[in-house]
Amino acid sequence: MKIKGFIAFIFPLAFLLLFLGSCTDNSKNIDENGKTFVSKGEKDWVYYTEYDDYIEITGFVFKTGADGLNVSIDITGSISFDISDNLSKDSFVSPEDVGVVDLIIPSIIANKPVKRIKSNAFKDIAAIKSVVLPSTLEYIGDNAFSGCINIPYFEFPDSLVTIGQNAFSGCTEVVELSTPRNMTVIGKNAFAGISNLEKLSISECVLQIDEGAFSGLGKVEELILPSGLKKIGSNSFRKWQSIETLIIPEKVEFIGLGAFYNCNKLNSLTFLGSPKIIGDEAFAVCGLDNVTLPQGTKILGNKVFRDCSNLKMIDLGGVESVGHNLFDGCKYLHTVVFSQDMNEISSGMFYNCDSLVKITVPSQIKNVGKWAFFNCDSLEKITFEDIYNIGDEAFIGCIKLKDISFSDEIKNIGERAFYKCISLEKIYVTSENIGKEAFYWCTSLKELSFSDNVKKIETKAFSRCNSLTNIRFSDNIVSLGALSFAGNTQLKTVLFGEGISEIMYGAFENCSPSFSGGNSYCKEWIKNWETK
Length: 532
What we know:
- By secondary structure, the chain is an all-beta fold.
- The chain has a domain at 2-101.
- Helices cover 3% and strands 26% of the residues.
- The strands form ten sheets. Strands 1, 2, 3, 4, 5, 7, 8, 10 and 11 form a nine-stranded mixed sheet that branches.
- The chain is elongated and about 110 Å long.
- The N and C termini lie far apart (97 Å).
């Protein structure tokens, strides 16, 4: 139950006990209508609200030194005045005009313990150069000290169990920080942007670190996470650009989006347990070299290791599901150990991985996603043991790829899947469907053959394959798409199969081979070709 609002006197630390009694009787500051005011001639004051069994600090009053005028900043940031003598309401003094303040919050006001500091109570008050928190304090609200850029140190009492969102964000002068001993949850952005912090000690009682709690602390060189920690929130340690080693405690179950994003000196990562989920970009733009994921980690989000430019080896442990662009831009990655529980290579998984040379895709993986190996320009050989589908543009720009082995189970090769794979020399195609421009501009392709599984060849599928000289179609192929072999200027012979029932326009445009074989449809088509 809220009783009434007060203004409490804050004393210099040396005289706190001496004057404490005078803080307990504030009735002289309440007029007959219940209106609060500030008596002239005093020093520094805090606004507070009295409840049944505790006090909550709600704001701060500045005295300017001008006789009779006090300027107060309440929790909404508005300015209020106490006018006496001959001063007018037009008088104005901003917080910037006030000198430095040593803020001492007493433990007892009106014979009741001070347990709470309200949200925004001291937000953006640059005049505060130091603060002493009461030993009775249990709760600090959202933004309470946010933007207090001249406070170099906070000492938290053991009684403190809750710190709200952004409570100390942007306190840029703080260089050393220890979280309260009995606190279990660090709130969202609670200590974000303390850019000069050099040393951080997180209490062993902490079980959860919320979103952005310690983001942007770029000078801290050592991070020791509490052994009981279960959750690391999104962006919680984002842009820690001085740490080199990290140990994830055994009980951590979740690592959030961007949790360690751009920790660019982080080169050693050890898991003592098995976090079940690692969120999007959790370790993106880090300096990691080799990573082994635990068997209990099952889900990796999008771009988890994006642009880890030093990453050379990854063991995916027991991972079951991976997001897109997992290793996008990992230009030195050359060794990948796939999980036996994975069933696909996700979209863009190895996008721009310039150092991959050979890949064997194990039998449990059935799908290769779109852009999976896009621009892997050192990749020379890939073997598919039991693949069903290759997505659109999966190998586009793999300019050194010479050797591909498809399984008999493959159903589809997507559009532009091997577009401009200019070193590819030989293909035995086993897919039912060959997508548009699937092998377009494979200028070194000399040998091409089809299994009985192949049914349809789409538009421009083998167009501009200028080294191709001979083609033999299997009997199960029924359709050749428009421009499917156009521009193959070295093509000499084409042997049709018995199943072809459709040859679309320009299928062999700018080619001059001799045609043979096929059913009556093919023979009629050949006749028309020869009379052009």
